Amino acid sequence: MQTDKQSVSKEEREELVKRLTPLQYRVTQHKITERPFTGEYLKLNDNGLYCCVVCGEEIFSSESKYESGCGWPAFDGVINNDKVKHNIDLSHVGSNLLLLALRSDVARTEVSCARCGAHLGHVFDDGPKTTGKRYCVPRRPKTVAQKYDKQRPHL
Ligand SMILES: [Zn+2]
């Protein structure tokens, strides 16, 4: 019995628990955000593709990576808009609906993998001029979009 189209089956969940580290699992499946400035790939500038750690889908290219100063790797776009889904995220607002009514800009946009539904991060509208977008992706060793292969040709 599935409550939404992207929920994973019990078997898939057990497989993910075995395959992913506890932190990877919590980030991708429960949308926790890792602490800023902790990812080993934060300052990595080699050419390559950043893939979904759950299903392997190629999401970001190093060509769109830039230094935003936010403490997490940032990209100004995805390889293809079909690769991700955008969802309104009000989890940080909690039950403070008055705050939401007064400041609609507090609503964040969550980015998830279109193929498997894994949480990837958030997107903001304060990116560089080329796209105006800032995809902020939690990324510490072996968490979201951790798979990184220098051998692959970049787009
Ligand atoms: Zn995925």
CATH class: Mainly Beta
Globular, elongated, flat, extended or rod-shaped: what is the shape?
globular
Low-confidence stretches: 1-5, 140-144, 146-155
What is the helix tally?
Answer: 3
The class by helix and strand makeup works out as: alpha+beta
The SSE string, one letter per element, is HHEEEEEHEEE
Q: What is the count of structural domains?
A: 1
InterPro entries: Met_Sox_Rdtase_MsrB, Met_Sox_Rdtase_MsrB_dom, Mss4-like_sf
Catalytic activity: L-methionyl-[protein] + [thioredoxin]-disulfide + H2O = L-methionyl-(R)-S-oxide-[protein] + [thioredoxin]-dithiol
Domain MsrB: 13-147
Protein name: Peptide-methionine (R)-S-oxide reductase
Describe the fold and architecture:
This protein has three helices and eight strands. The chain has one domain: Metal Binding Protein, Guanine Nucleotide Exchange Factor, Chain A, CATH 2.170.150.20. The chain is 16% helix and 21% strand. The strands form two sheets. A six-stranded antiparallel sheet has the order 3-4-8-7-6-5. Strands 1-2 form a two-stranded antiparallel ribbon. The chain is α+β, with helices and mostly antiparallel strands and 155 residues long. A hairpin with a 6-residue loop joins strand 1 (49-51) and strand 2 (58-61). It is globular and about 45 Å long. The protein has helices spanning 10-19, 22-30, 97-102, and strands at 49-51, 58-61, 65-66, 74-75, 84-89, 108-113, 119-124, 134-136. The longest helix is centred in the N-terminal third of the chain and has 10 residues, at 10-19. Bound molecules: zinc ion (ZN). The site of zinc ion has 8 residues, from loops.
